[in-house]
Design goal:
By secondary structure, this protein is of the alpha/beta class. The protein has helices spanning about 15-20, 30-35, 50-60, 80-85, 105-120, 135-145, 150-155, 155-170, 180-190, 190-205, 255-265, 270-275, 290-300, 315-320, 325-335, 360-365, 390-400, 415-425, 430-440, 455-465, 500-505, 535-545, 550-555; strands at about 40-45, 90-95, 175, 215-220, 235-240, 280, 285, 340, 370-375, 380-390, 470-480, 485-490, 520-525, 560-570, 575-580. It is built from 23 helices and 15 strands. The radius of gyration is 28 Å and the shape is elongated.
């Protein structure tokens, strides 16, 4: 039996079936849509999780302009007799906005108008059907020629559904792919209000209580809330990764991945594939990133495929602007830990900078985190969950694209790496001098003002030592001994932890030279109100480190030689002191 080719970059359902490309059967998604009593359905999912392909499948299922019945004869949906009665019964409006990305509002609207123009051209056969007035034909031609006004284009979706309904004597299906892509671009490029205003008219007019609508299905990455796009829509149902319905219709399940590896006789081990691309939780279903699965099977190599399909500009910007608590939480995540956060299924873009929880909702819905232990408090209308990094590929993305962007002056990255290198080479005095000099030159008073400047320095040091991840297990604010150490660097010499971080080490440095001493940081604010001096702060810090036995965890790994560094801060002024505990002096 000849192995089928993988449909890399192919999102047209009909092409996949007719050209006999490999297809993971998601046809029961049709049953979910057809069987739903809701007029409009929105399915937010991360990018490259099969949204466009599923909408394309719906298009070819409903389309009454051509006989597509053979496309479904060997799929699971063919066994659903009641559902198959709807096959080929409706005109379909299908538009994708996934490529509507532009730096200016003017360019964005040009792209949108062009997509709408092409949509009208796809249905231009209705111009000769005799169901349209001269004024309607004139309007139709303005849209096709892209000479209409912005108001013309805002009402174009509703108008087209009316024209199709009157022509075919049955209401159309409206399918809108990646509806929120222009909104992302508008937010990032500062024309958010303009694009929101347009989308309100474009989508709302066609989907809200329209007498010309049979059913509407939208996909996107996020549910954009409180922007009047959907707030007035009382006939919409939103099904996110938090909802059980249709949870396994996007992305691949364990069984589907195992079947693909077997069908295509792949030499990749399921364990390696699972470790790299699994880990998403869609309402209890264990889900894989399909884009990475397909590409890894095609290339016969575990690689980083999904993270490279987007520039992640917005993610980087959000992390650069995030406060220190966010950076500390990210530090916990990249060490394989989890954080408990309030989450919700919608994003309010203007609140991304003000709402400390918004960034976690954004990360979750965009596919950068997984959730567990999702708890709904119906009385308080709160939802909480434990968030973590889902797999090795996303961990690499966090390390390479997020942690490295914590620094406000990217051109100084090499300087920071040199400072960190002094630390692991045991040149503690040079590390202290260079660290102090960098802080004095690079930080402003506003960076370190407030009641807890040590949090800023903590986050900064955590980012700086990120380059040491392949040599150290880095733990931030973890319980150890009888207290909580601020930052701990445990060398990968005497142990092999089961964390994803250790698995990521591409070049194990054991036996290649380099430091094998543990390092523990303690960050303190100088308490001038109580007459504290730097010398006294250092004495107190040393006593705290030793009395509370912050080194117990490290010694549990067999690390007996430990360097302690106490950093005391007074605004921009920072002083460091260190001491060493080894096997000979305990």
């Amino acid at each position: 039996m000849t192995k089928k080719e993988l449909p890399i970059g192919v999102s047209d359902f009909k092409k996949i079936i007719t050209e006999n490309l490999y297809y993971v059967d998601k046809s029961l998604f049709i049953k979910d849509v057809v069987g739903s009593g809701t007029a409009v359905l929105l399915y937010p999912r991360p990018r490259r999780f099969g949204k466009t392909l599923n909408l394309s499948m719906l298009k070819h299922f409903y389309d009454c302009s051509v006989d597509n019945s053979d496309l479904f004869k060997d799929l699971a949906i063919s066994n659903e007799d009641n559902i198959m009665k709807k096959q080929g019964k409706h005109p379909v409006i299908f538009i994708t906005l996934k490529d509507i990305k532009a730096e200016t509002a003017e360019h964005c609207f040009e792209k949108i108008y062009h997509e709408i123009s092409n949509l009208y051209k796809d249905h231009k056969n209705i111009l000769t059907g005799g169901s349209m007035s001269e004024l309607d034909i004139e309007y139709y031609n303005k849209i096709m020629s892209e000479t209409g006004t912005i108001t013309n284009f805002e009402t174009s979706l509703k108008k087209l559904s009316q024209y199709l309904s009157e022509h075919y004597k049955i209401n159309p299906i409206i399918l809108i792919d990646e509806y929120d892509t222009p909104i992302h671009a508008g937010y990032y490029n500062n024309y958010y209000k303009e694009i929101i205003g347009f989308m309100q008219g474009f989508l709302g007019g066609a989907l809200k209580d329209s007498i010309y609508l049979e059913k509407g299905v939208l996909t996107g990455i996020l549910r954009v809330a409180r922007e009047s796009i959907f707030s007035d829509l009382n006939n919409i149902r939103v099904l996110t990764v938090l909802d059980e319905e249709s949870a396994n219709r996007f992305g691949f399940t364990d069984d589907e991945v195992i079947k693909m590896l077997t069908d295509l006789d792949s030499s990749l081990s399921f364990a390696d594939v699972k470790n790299s691309y699994n880990g998403y939780n869609f309402s209890g279903f264990d889900i894989y990133n399909p884009w990475s699965i397909i590409n890894s099977v095609q290339s016969n190599k575990i690689g980083h495929y999904w993270a490279n399909t987007s520039s992640n500009k917005l993610i980087k910007t959000m992390c650069q602007e995030a406060d220190d608590s966010v950076k500390e939480d990210i530090g916990i995540l990249i060490q394989g830990g989890s954080i408990k956060k309030y989450i919700q299924d919608h994003i309010v873009f203007p609140e991304l900078k003000e709402d400390e929880n918004a960034i976690w909702n954004f990360f979750l819905m965009c596919g950068y985190l997984r959730y567990d232990n999702y708890i709904i408090d119906t009385e308080l209308r709160n939802t909480n969950a434990e968030l973590s990094i889902p797999n090795k590929e996303i961990l690499v993305m966090f390390n390479n694209n997020i942690v490295t962007n914590w620094f406000r002056k990217p051109e100084k990255t090499d300087e920071l790496i040199n400072i960190a290198t002094c630390l692991i080479n045991g040149d503690i005095e040079k590390f202290k001098l260079d660290f102090i000099e960098y802080c004095q030159e690079s930080f402003s008073y506003y960076d370190v003002s407030g009641d807890q400047p040590e949090k800023f320095y903590h986050a900064f040091v955590l980012g700086m030592i990120a380059c040491l991840r392949d040599r150290y297990l880095i733990k931030s604010n973890r319980e150890s001994g009888y207290g909580r150490s601020d930052l701990m660097l445990i060398p990968y010499t005497n142990f092999s932890p089961h964390s994803q971080v250790r698995d990521l080490s591409l070049h194990l440095w054991e036996g290649q030279g380099g430091a094998n001493k543990g390092i523990i940081f303690e960050f303190k604010k100088l308490n001038e109100a109580h007459g504290e001096t730097f010398e006294k702060a250092f004495r107190n810090g040393k006593r705290q480190l030793l009395e509370k036995q912050y080194d117990l965890e490290m010694k549990g790994y067999g690390i007996e030689e430990i360097t302690y560094i106490i950093a005391v801060f007074k605004g921009k002024e920072v002083m460091l002191e260190s001491f060493f505990v080894g096997m000979e002096n305990g």
